[in-house]
Amino acid sequence: MRIALLGGTGDIGEGLALRWAYHTDHEVVVGSRDPEKARAKAEEYETELDSRGVEEKVTGFENAMAADRADVVVLAVPAYHVVDVVEEIGDRIDEDTTLVTPAVGMQKGAGGFRYNPPDAGSVTALVAEAAPEGVPVVGAFHNLAADRLANLDVELSLDTLVVGDDDDAKRNVADLAAGIEGLRALDAGPLANAAEVESLTPLLVNLAIHNDGMHDVGVRFE
Amino acid sequence: MRIALLGGTGDIGEGLALRWAYHTDHEVVVGSRDPEKARAKAEEYETELDSRGVEEKVTGFENAMAADRADVVVLAVPAYHVVDVVEEIGDRIDEDTTLVTPAVGMQKGAGGFRYNPPDAGSVTALVAEAAPEGVPVVGAFHNLAADRLANLDVELSLDTLVVGDDDDAKRNVADLAAGIEGLRALDAGPLANAAEVESLTPLLVNLAIHNDGMHDVGVRFE
User: Fold this and answer.
1) What is the pLDDT of residues A99-144, one digit of tens each?
2) B82 with B123: CB under 8 angstroms?
C-alpha cells in the first residue's frame, strides 16, 4: 500500500514513517506544506533506514502531491491545522482513500493538560465533517509513545485504538498498525466514541508530568 | 487504618474490601444505606476470607456509622448517588478523613458508552464541592477490572490513577492502593485533571464491547 504521512516531519509522523518503512512493504510518502522540508525529512529517514539495510522506501512531497494516489492518508498535523490540510488535499482523495486522524485538541492548564475537543465533539468528528463525501475517516495512533516509536532500536509493546464508522476502513488501518512489530490495534467502536479515545492523550502527558521516571508514556489494555 | 467502603456491596466495593482485608492489616468496614445488607455482605466477605485463613477483618454498618471514625471513606456508589451519600455522612467526617471517589458518569449510546461529567466538570470535582469544608477529596480506583479485583485467585497487574489537590491525602490513597499486590498507583495530578481520568472508564467498556476476547478490561501505563 501507499501511505501518505502529512505532517510526516513531526514526532508521530516520523515514528510511523520509519516503522512502516522498516517493518512492512508499504510505500511511505512524507508530506508537508513545504516540499523542500518534506524531501529533506524523507532523505533523513532514508539515511536512517539505509543504515539498517532498508533502501528506497520513503519519498517526500508537498501535501497534495503526497496524498495523490495514496491508499491511506495520515493527518499527522496539529488539531488546529487539520481542516486546512483536508481542504488542501480534498481534490486528490476519494472513497478509495482512507483518512486517518491521530490529532488531539489539548489545552494546558495548572498542573497538566486537558482534553479540549472542537465543537464537532472530537477531532475525528471534525475531520469526518471536513472530508469529501464518501471518504472514510478513522481515528488512530493518538496514544503512541512518540520517542519510542521513532527509535527503531526500541522494541515496542504498545496498544493503539482505532475508532470510526466504516468497518472496512477501520480494519485496514488496524492491519496497518499491526504491521508494526509490538503494536496492537484495538477497536474502540464507532466515531461517536472518539472523544474518549482522544482524551487519553492529555492523561498520558499528565502521568509523565506527575510521576518520577515516567516519560513518553504509552498504554496497554489487558 | 480504618477504611469505610460505602456501597461496598457493589462490584468495585467488593473487590477493594476483599483485597484490603486479604493483602493488608487495615480494618475494612462495609457501608450501605441498608444496615442489614451491609452486615450480610460483610459476612459473605468474611466467609470468603476465612477460607483463606484471614479472620475478623470486615464488618458492616449503615453508611454514616461505617464512615464514623474511618481514616479513609471510599464512595463506591453510582455517580448520581454520590452527593446524597456525602450529605448522609457529612457530620461524621472531618479534615482527618480522606474522601475517595471512584465513580464515573457515563451515558450509553449507539456503539458504546460516553463520558458524561456533571456540571462540576468531573465526579471528583462534584464530590469536592459537596464535601464538608477541609475534608480532602481524592479520585481513585476508577479504572480497575472489577471482576479480577474481586477474585482473590487472580494475580493483578493493573494501574490505578490518583487525582486530587491535597498531596498528603493523595499519597495516603496511593499507599493504600499499593498495599494491594499487583496494583500500582500513578499520580494524575490535581483535581482539575480528573475528567481525563474518569473518561478512561467508558473507553475500557467500549474496548470490551468491540474486541473479541476482551472483557473486564484494565490498563497499564508504560
Assistant:
1) 999 999 999 999 999 999 999 999 999 999 999 999 999 999 999 9
2) yes
Contact B207 A187 (CB under 8 A): yes
- Grid coordinates representing A201? 492523550
Q: Taking CB atoms and an 8 Å cutoff, what residues of chain B touch A210? A: 186-189
Residue B83 CA to residue A84 CA, distance in Å, equals 45
Task: Please state the ipTM of this predicted complex.
Answer: 0.95
Asked if B105 contacts B130 with a C-beta cutoff of 8 angstroms, the reply is no
Q: Where are the beta strands (DSSP E) in B116-221?
A: 137-139, 158-164, 183-187, 219-221
With contact defined as beta carbons under 8 Å apart, do B26 and B20 qualify?
yes
Q: Which residue out of A138, A167, A199, A219 would a mutagenesis test of the B interface target, given it has the greatest number of B Cβ atoms within 10 Å? A: A199
Q: Specify the amino acid at residue B139.
A: G
Q: Which residue, among A154, A198, A212, A221, would best test binding to B if mutated, counting the most B CBs under 10 Å from its CB?
A: A221
Q: Do A188 and B195 touch (CB under 8 A)?
A: no
How far, rounded to the nearest angstrom, does the alpha carbon of residue A42 sit from its chain's CA centroid? 16
Domains annotated on chain A, with CATH: 2-210 (3.40.50.720)
Tell me the whole-structure pTM to 2 decimals. 0.96
* pLDDT (0 to 100) of residue A9: 73
Instruction: Give the per-residue pLDDT at B177.
Output: 97
β partners of residue A98: A72
CA distance B182 to chain A (A): 13
Cell numbers for A134: 464518501
Report the run of H or E that residue B170 belongs to, with start and end.
Answer: helix B167-178
For the record, the C-alpha cell of B178 comes out as 499499593
CA distance A37 to chain B (A): 33
Smallest CA–CA separation between B120 and chain A, in Å? Answer: 15
